Each structure stands twice: as C-alpha cells, then as structure tokens.
Amino acid sequence: MEILLKVILVLIFNSMQVYLVYHYFNKFFVLKVELKTFIKIMFIILLLSKFIPIQVSAFTKMLSFLLLLWLGVNICFRSTISKLIYHITFFSLLILLAEMILSIVVQYFALQIIENPNIIWIYFISNSLSQLLVLILIKLIVKQKQEDAAELDRDEYLLLSIIPMFSLISIYWIERYKMIPLIIPCLFYLTINVCLMLLYYRMTNKNFEIQKNMISSIQNEFYEKNMKDQKENAKLRHDLKNILLNLDYYLSNNDIQSARNMLYQITDIKINSYKIISGCIPIDAILDSKIMKMENNKIKYEMDIQVPENLKFENDIDIAAILGNLIDNAIEAIIRYENQENGKIIIQIKYNSYKVIIKIKNPTEYIESDLKKHQIKSMKGRNRLGIGISSIKDRVDKLGGYYDFSSVNNEFVSLVIIPIKHNR
C-alpha cells in the first residue's frame, strides 16, 4: 500500500512539473507539436529523471536532468540553440533552488518526527510547495515581458547563459563542501537570477524601441520624399499651361531649336503620375501609393474622402505614417483572408470641427487581439505586436489624438481621430 501511495504521489508531482515546463517555455518558444503530444513526451522524459539512482553525485543528477529537459524541449519547441541554452539553464536553476530551499526547511522538521508515518506526505507537500514557488516566480517574470519585445542575438543569449550555468555548478560545489549554511547561497542565487531575468526583459524592450525608432525613421524619409515628389508634381501641373504657351510661341515663330531645348528640359525632369484624390498633399501622397498596392494585389476598395484642399497639418510625416500603417494593416488582413475575392477595404477620411477622422474597415476571419489595451498581435511572430500598430499608437498620442480598434461580425474597424489646429 505504501509503494502504491509513493507511485501515485510521484505521478502527481511529475504532472506538476510538466505543467511548469509548458507554462514557462510556451511563453518564449513556439510549440511545434500538438499539446497532447507535448504532454506525453514531457511526462515520460521528466518521469525518467525520477529514476536517476540515488547513489550518483549531485552534479551527475543535475547534468542528467539538464540533458533530459534539453531533449524534451528541443523535441517539442521551435527555437535557436543559444536561446534554448539560456532558458533551459535558467528554468533548471529555478527548479533546483526552490526544491533545495524547501527541502532544507522540511528536513529540519522531518528529523524531529522521523518515526512519524506521515513523513511521505511531508516530503510530498514540500515538493509541491517548491513547484508552487517556481510557478509564482515564473508568473512574476513573464509579467514583465513586453509582448512586442525584440529578440536577442546569439551572443547576447550566450552571455546571459553564463550566470545560471555557473550558479548550477556552484551549487554542486557548495553541497559537496558544506562550509556555510546551504540556504544562504540558495537564496542569494535565486535573487540574482530573478534580477537577471528582469534585466533580460529590459534589454529586449530596449532593443524593440531601437528597432521601432529605426523603422519610424525610414518611414519618415519615405513619406517625406513621397510628399516632396507630390508637391513637385503639383508645381509642374500648375506651370504646364505656361510651358505649353511657350512651346506654341516657339513653334509659331519656327524657332525649332528653342522648342526642342524646352522639351529636353521638361523630359529631363522625373515626373511621377500622382492621382489627385482630395487635393490635400499629405493624404493624397499615401492614398496614391496604397491604391496602386491594392490594385496590384487585386483588392477591392471603396473610398470616401472629404477633406479640404488647403488643410494644413502640424506634422505631415506623422499623418502620412498613421494613414499608411492603417491601410497596410488592412491590406495584410485581406491578403490573409480566405475569401479574398469577396473582401473589400473601406477607407473613410473626413474633416469636421477641426478634427480629421480616419476610419478603415476590412473583413477578417481571425483577429488575435486585446481590444481593451488596443493591442493587435502580429502574424509575423508569436507573442509580438506589430511595429506598425505600435507606431500608430505612438504617433497618435504624440498628436494628442484618439485611436480605437474593434472587431465585430468578422469585420475589423480601425478608428483614428487627429485634432487639427485652426487653418487660417
């Protein structure tokens, strides 16, 4: 009966560890097998770690657990080697330290009641509490994780792996040479590694901000050039009548050479064919390029543009970037839409009471979003927010505007309202 009880408790404890492995690694990696398959594989692998002989050294036990965990995670999750090294060593360290801290405390009481028949339950409860401690620490860590944080490179992951790896090795030496109370270094190592993990997220968040700023800078240059070309084109259209009158004068007076020179000057200028949609250059410059993109992708669209030609924006680049990113998101959604031939993008831009109201609708079959936080998951990577969405939020906040994203009846609606200073 006692043996059966031990087996049941081991299976329960093993199931707890499977849950911890999933809860931790699923936050950082993409699961490449079905959840049921993951549970079976990880349950067997972690169960094997329970059958490591008691006679072997602590270092051998630790190494065996690391290798088995590596095998299971590598089979079930998609990741780079450097990222895998860091997260496996850190997770193993959390497990080991939590178990050691509670086992040291429990052993003290176990020695007082060594004859007590409930000693099995005491060890089971202590191990369960250690798993609970690990779960709390994991939740604390992943709570600090910014969803759109950029990935670290190989060297950064390898550098981060040094501290948890050395901590694991140090614990082996401390246990072998008991010169100080073991609970003290355990608490110390636990603290520094949790702090290290928090530092890790600060680094990824910083990398994301750098990446976002670089992309915003590239966007600014693109939209600035686009509007410059549009203004140049508008100037040429304005001057076209005078140019034609001059050509007519030269030809009427048989001054062929002068007419030819004027034609050379005209044809030497690069003229982009822009469509005049509203007459407002910052808006037309973006709409023109996005219309071309939609037509190239055979995407149906409908536009309702009601803005004055002389509308002046405080920052043309921000307006262009906001509108461009909104339409790009709609185009991307239509391209992913299974019934693309029936999908249509509806673009509405209106000016009213010193506000520009931009509303864009597009059909969608799947939106992974947190609408309360106005966050939309990017399809380009797991657990990442699209940089375009983040750019929209930042630029709208900068202009003192309002944004809202909603999904109703398989239709996604983006709404942005930008206040405009009084145009004189």
From TrEMBL:
<dbReference type="InterPro" id="IPR036890">
    <property type="entry name" value="HATPase_C_sf"/>
</dbReference>
<dbReference type="InterPro" id="IPR032834">
    <property type="entry name" value="NatK-like_C"/>
</dbReference>
<feature type="transmembrane region" description="Helical">
    <location>
        <begin position="37"/>
        <end position="56"/>
    </location>
</feature>
<feature type="domain" description="Sensor histidine kinase NatK-like C-terminal">
    <location>
        <begin position="317"/>
        <end position="419"/>
    </location>
</feature>
<feature type="transmembrane region" description="Helical">
    <location>
        <begin position="120"/>
        <end position="142"/>
    </location>
</feature>
<dbReference type="Pfam" id="PF14501">
    <property type="entry name" value="HATPase_c_5"/>
</dbReference>
<feature type="transmembrane region" description="Helical">
    <location>
        <begin position="6"/>
        <end position="25"/>
    </location>
</feature>
<protein>
    <submittedName>
        <fullName>GHKL domain-containing protein</fullName>
    </submittedName>
</protein>
<keyword id="KW-0812">Transmembrane</keyword>
<keyword id="KW-0472">Membrane</keyword>
<feature type="transmembrane region" description="Helical">
    <location>
        <begin position="180"/>
        <end position="201"/>
    </location>
</feature>
<feature type="transmembrane region" description="Helical">
    <location>
        <begin position="157"/>
        <end position="174"/>
    </location>
</feature>
<feature type="transmembrane region" description="Helical">
    <location>
        <begin position="93"/>
        <end position="114"/>
    </location>
</feature>
<keyword id="KW-1133">Transmembrane helix</keyword>
